[in-house]
Amino acid sequence: MTYLSTLVPAYAEIFLLVMVCAILIVDLFVTDPNRIVTYLLVQLTLLGCALITVSTYQPGVVHLFHNTFVDDMMSDVLKLLSYLAMSMALVYSRHYLMARGLFTGEFMVLALFALLGMMVMISASHFISLYIGLELLSLSLYAMVALQRDSAVATEAAMKYFILGALASGLLLYGMSMLYGATGSLDVNAISAAISHGVENKQLLTFGLVFIVAGLAFKLGAVPFHMWVPDVYHGAPTAMTLIIGSAPKLAAFAFVMRLLVESMQPLMMHWSGMLAILAVLSMALGNISAIAQTNLKRMFAYSTIAHMGFLLLGVLSGNIDGYSSAMFYAVVYVLMSLGGFGMIMLLSRAGFEADNLDDFKGLNQRSPWLAFIMLLLMFSMAGVPPTVGFYAKFSVLQAAVNAGHIPLVVMAVLFSLIGAFYYLRIVKLMYFDAPESHVPISMQPDSSVLISFNGLAVLLLGILPGNLMAVCAVSVQQSLLLH
Amino acid sequence: MISFETIVFYLLAALSVFAAVRVITARNPVHAALFLVLAFCGMAGIWLLLEAEFLAMTLILVYVGAVMVLFLFVVMMLDIDLVQLREGFWRWFPFGVALAAVMVFEMVWVLGNNRTAETGTALVKHDADYSNVKELGRLIYTDYVFPFELAAVLLLIAIVAAIALTLRRRKDSKTQNVAQQVAVKRADRIRIVKVPAEKRGE
């Protein structure tokens, strides 16, 4: 067997990297009016990655590059969903960026680099590759937020994101170095084996764990490490907010799984308690602060914090059901977040941002179809049946009940009831208030078709959640048990 | 009996801690940067004691030689208004001290309650002909080739981001293009326009 054929599981990453470099060069010869060429190349690259990931699928867990890279079903599923999310995000943001003069080759190249970082995070089985993947993603995102350099708000958001992100990376690295000191390895599986054999220096291990959980909470935006989320979501151009708030959440889920579950499963007693505090605080602060917001992007930022609390609730259940429901929750959240920010961009036009609650007043009179799609998305975020948001919340709660976390579940239900208020307020504004402006909505064919699919997917997956749930369950089971 | 190496270690450690404390307490940012250089030098000495000669030299060359010099340039070129920076310092000071006290208390409590014996394995001593660089190179290009290649991608992202964020093609720059000036024709300068008659505004 030649060396090249051993690299089959990493073909998608290699293809993406080669294509990014090619696009970087091609883009030099493309003039601004023809930027669509770059855009189409990027979409083709995403399609190519998807084809490669599907065609190189092999059952079981494969380790590559001296155990720094792992290919299992969970990584394949999450990668496919990340391509989809990135592709949808680019469709939604094309016209928005064109109207603001931000539709540049750099934007698309950085988006692909961010995707590469996510893929590395998703299939990393070594602390160094986990960290490098995270940095690839974060560095691209910082730059993307700052791309609109004439806007003071965007620059401020980028600065806050960069500094707090660097702090979080520092915490994470510090924790990782302590784990290395305690177990003598950076390999996820070796660490897990070392911990279950018993480590001499328990304190070092616990300290490392605390730092790692704090770093993870920073990256996820869980309370009390959430301060950057509202400012970054609000300050960044909506297209960048969409990219930050969609596919990276899938990578973050994989990151939590690889760090906490795969390498530190024997320490679950310790980390599930920490996650419980983070989860409850996130759900409480996220849902309650979101009520006070008048800006939709800021409101979505607080709602993200609350959703991350729910995701952590799934993880801390500590069994296959919990992990697969958390994965399902992450996927559903990405779908809803794409729709929500996509809608803001669809209603915006040159020189106007539809990111205030008042801009949604009377949307039903201006465009009944868009109002209906937004209604579906809001119902799903609030967790109203029969949308998929209900099922996602339900499965997380079920897993937590089975794991015996009854008080946590009661609090989660209470806080999501509080949260339902601000989602349903948007529905009220759209259907029962008079519109403030009568400017016709400029419907772009590609994004309006996509948002229809997005909204209907939220409804359809809610009626028939079985397949997606089964995929999540099988992939988590396969990747956790077989190595 | 304390060995010579232990004495050197404690000296270097004390130097590093002193320098690190001065980095955050020095009032003048230039002094703070210079103390950071001192801290790096102390750490490089400790790395030398650990037989990581190549890393120690890289730390001096890259951090002290390149990064800190750049840092000093930036600090000197920017006109930092210290008074403005310190504004609100005393207002938040009690809060910060309280938070730090809680952290220290927690750490002492956890570490003090169940003290374990000193663990960790002794440093493996190598012969004089053992090559640090060779060993690092072997690891980077074999076991860690995947993260190593990705670190290169990280640098590529940094280049793309830096160019995207700073490159400005100024539309108002008034540079002369002599060739164009010489080759100018009458048709380029004068345009004859036929303006239709219009009614004069109010």
Report on this model:
The complex is a heterodimer of chains A (483) and B (202). Helices cover 76% and strands 1% of the residues of chain A. Chain A is mostly helical and 483 residues long. Chain A has a two-stranded antiparallel ribbon. The model of chain A has no long low-confidence stretch (mean pLDDT 90). In chain A, a hairpin with a 4-residue loop joins strand 1 and strand 2. In chain A, helix 2 (11-26) runs antiparallel to helix 3. Among the domains of chain B are: 1-81, Four Helix Bundle (Hemerythrin (Met), subunit A); 131-161. Chain B has helices at 4-25, 29-49, 53-77, 82-86, 89-113, 132-141, 145-166, 178-182, 186-189.
Write the layout of secondary structure elements.
The complex is a heterodimer of chains A (483) and B (202).
Chain A (H helix, E strand, L loop, with lengths): L2 H4 L4 H16 L9 H20 L6 E3 L4 E3 L1 H27 L5 H18 L4 H20 L5 H32 L4 H10 L4 H19 L7 H8 L2 H8 L1 H18 L3 H24 L4 H21 L3 H28 L15 H4 L1 H15 L5 H15 L3 H27 L12 H19 L2 H16 L2
Antiparallel strand pairs in A: 1-2
Chain B lengths: L3 H22 L3 H21 L3 H25 L4 H5 L2 H25 L18 H10 L3 H22 L11 H5 L3 H4 L13
